[in-house]
Design a protein that fits this description.
single chain, mainly alpha, MetI-like fold, 15 helices, 78% helix
Length: 315
């Protein structure tokens, strides 16, 4: 087991290296001047040249890249050009909020996708199956920012069930914290839940046609036991892959939703840093998000072993 996990981590290192190179090169050639963004439009040419020299922007790109990698390995992401705060501090605060939003969104995805997918497969071509596929198609088709605006207009403002925006810390109570997360989490979870529901349905339909399912039913096993013990477990491989990808999507794809709901998370931090051309913050946020996505996919590969031990034996 440890060897399997170590091999997966080792295979992820080239991917991580490519991500760091891509992040740095793209920002290097991006339009704009970090020195001008830091000093403002009224800065003199001498002041701009002095700041560029202080930031080592006059050095070759490979020198700056190697220096940045050395700092990152020491968990030093540099200092923000705008706020002069440590990037690690900014990312640590915003990442915790985005992680909470991602966790609640993922719980909603699982609570929506698996029951609807299983029911659609078990009751194929029924009214519930038809309604499930219709809502899945709607969930995939509607962008999350549009859902966010609808939720604010009709549920938060119209009905007054939830706050229209803002983040409430868990220190102020569990229910106020959860109420501040429900609407943005639903807006983010709609598309992943719809996609995962369709995948669960397709996988379940494929497994339900297998001979061992018919054998289990012929032995007189209860239908619920056949569905949960045999069909669901053996149909989890494809949905597990989708779950891993969706967690990365939820973690990095909530930029617009966080802005709409005034959430001080990673998405909002990345957007504001991009507008201000605060490249240190952009690099740090992009790198942390990429590392989290890679680790999540490694964890999904690790969970494959518990679903199907033959993967470990054949590796």
């Amino acid at each position: 087991m440890a060897r399997f996990f170590a091999r997966r981590l080792l295979f992820s290192l080239p991917v991580l290296f490519g991500v760091t190179v891509l992040i740095y090169v793209l920002l290097w050639f991006a339009p704009g001047d970090p020195a001008l963004s830091s000093l403002g439009i009224y800065a003199t040419p001498e002041q701009l040249e002095t700041l560029r020299a202080q930031l080592d922007l006059d050095k070759p790109i490979y020198v700056l890249y190697l220096r940045w990698i050395g700092q990152v390995l020491r968990l030093d992401f540099g200092v923000s050009l705008i706020t002069k705060e440590y990037v690690g501090t900014l990312i640590g605060h915003s990442f915790s909020i985005t992680a909470q939003l991602t966790a609640v969104s993922m719980i909603m995805v699982l609570l929506i996708a698996f029951p609807t997918g299983i029911i659609s497969a078990v009751k194929r071509n029924s009214i519930s199956d038809t309604l499930s596929r219709i809502f899945s198609l709607m969930g995939i088709s509607m962008p999350n920012f549009w859902l966010a605006l609808l939720f604010i207009t009709f549920i938060a403002v119209g009905l007054g069930w939830f706050p229209p925006g803002g983040y409430v810390s868990p220190d102020r109570g569990f229910w106020p914290w959860l109420n501040s997360l429900i609407l943005p989490s639903l807006a983010i979870a709609a598309a992943p839940a719809s996609s995962l529901s369709r995948m669960v349905r397709a996988s379940m339909l494929d497994v339900l046609s297998k001979d061992y399912i018919r054998t289990a039913r012929a032995k007189g096993q209860r239908e619920r036991w056949v569905i949960l013990r045999h069909a669901l477990r053996n149909s989890m491989m494809a949905p597990m892959t989708i779950i891993g990808m969706q967690v990365g999507y939820l973690l990095g794809g909530a930029i617009i939703v966080e802005v709409i709901f005034f959430f001080p998370g990673m998405g909002r931090l990345l957007l504001e840093a991009g507008i201000d051309q605060d490249y240190s913050v952009v690099q740090g946020v992009a790198l942390v998000t990429s590392v989290a996505f890679i680790l999540i996919n490694v964890l999904v590969d690790f969970l494959y072993v518990f679903i199907d031990p033959r993967i470990r034996d054949s590796d």
